[in-house]
Amino acid sequence: MLTRARDLVRQQGVISVQEVALNLAVPTDVARALLQKWVDKGRIAQLPTPTACTGCMLCDPAPRELYHWQATAEEDADSASGADQSEVGRSTRVPSRCPAARPPQGQG
Known about the structure:
globular, about 40% helix, Arc Repressor Mutant, subunit A, 3-stranded antiparallel β-sheet, about 10% strand, mainly alpha, 3 strands
C-alpha cells in the first residue's frame, strides 16, 4: 500500500490526501500516514495549504492538503531528454485561484 500511495503522487504530480485516500479505499488518516513516510524519505513534499476564498460557494471550505512528487536528479535528466514524456491529463500545477475568478468560457 505504501508503494501504491507513492505511485499515485508520482503519476499525478500534485494530489490531495483525500484523493489518495479515495484511490486506496482507506481513511484519510491512513493516507496521510502513508504520504508522511514518503515525505520523511524526501520523495514527496507537502505543499503549503492554499488560502480559501470567501463567498463564491464554488470552493470546498475544507483546507486542501496537497502533496507534490519530488523528482530525483536522474528523473529530471530523463525528463529533459524526453525519456519520460508526460501522460495525457497529468498535471503538476497547483490550483492557485478560485474558479469563480476565471472568466466564463468563450469570454476570455
